[in-house]
Amino acid sequence: MQFDADNVRFVVPDNPTLRLAGPLTLEAWLKFQMGGTLNPRIISKGWESQTGYELLLVGTGENRRFQFAAKDLGRFDSSSALSVNEWHHIAATYDGRAVRLLLNGRENAVYKAQGRIRTNDIPLQFGRNSQTNADLYKGEIAEVRIWNRAVPEEEIRQNLISHPQNQAGLVGWWDFRQYGNAETVPDISSSRNNGRIVRNAQPRGRR
Fold first, then answer.
1. Are strands 170-175 and 88-94 parallel, antiparallel or unpaired?
2. Which candidate, 71, 64, 56, 60, places its Cα nearest to that of 21?
3. Which segments within 19-87 are labelled E, that is strand?
4. Which domain holds residue 57?
């Protein structure tokens, strides 16, 4: 699915299965392009300075670290940067004791963390901050998965090359490679958190 940092966003209505206080795992395949605004959001459920959790890119340059942020836990940056116009798989896990960031199935950074994430009833969005509608992402997103458990590194790495065999705790799974041009994208997990692609109306005369 192509996000142009202006006219496209993906919205999933709030559901109790997505109100994750921890543990959790967020993961996505992405290829970002130059541009976007401030710190582009990949996955956003609220605004981490107030409530919820987010997976985002830091800055808008050619090389960007990715970050997991959650209310009452903090912000946690990857050790390595991602390169523009290249596919990357990023993931963040939290098990109640530590936050782990993984890049292409390999552990990239680990931080001590504890506590519960402050939840909310705000819709989940991809491609922008779900509470402020700022921090717009420019580029492609192919697949997103959200879990209510901390998925081990070995399992994440195995899932990169095949569909998850162990789907316990999988509360959202959206595969845009199959439905990127559709209006509604189904949640492949058993939670049925289907989402919709929202495209703003183009001004007259603009192509």
1. unpaired
2. 71
3. 24-32, 41-47, 51-57, 63-64, 66-70, 74-77, 82-83
4. 2-199
What are 77-94's pLDDT values in tens digits?
999 999 999 999 999 999
What residues have CB less than 8 Å from 121, skipping those under 6 apart? Answer: 14, 19
* Closest by CA position to 2, among listed 140, 144, 134, 149: 140
Q: Identify whether the C-beta of residue 138 lies closer than 8 Å to the C-beta of residue 5.
A: yes
Residue 6 lies in a domain: yes
Is 25 a domain residue?
A: yes
Query: Which letter does DSSP use for residue 114 in this model?
Result: -
Q: CB neighbours of 2 closer than 8 A, spacing ≥ 6?
A: 8, 139, 140, 180
CA atoms of 11 and 141, how far apart (whole Å): 14
- Residue 28 makes CB contacts below 8 A (sequence gap 6+) with 42, 43, 55, 89, 90, 91, 141, 143, 144, 145
Q: Can you give the CATH number for the domain in which 60 is found?
A: 2.60.120.200
pLDDT in tens, 18-69: 999 999 999 999 999 999 999 999 999 998 889 999 999 999 999 999 999 9
Cβ neighbourhood burial of 169 (10 Å; 0-12, 13-18, 19+):
middle
Cα-flanking dihedrals φ and ψ of residue 25, to 5°?
-140, 135
Q: What angle do CA 96, 64, 178 make, to 5 degrees?
A: 80
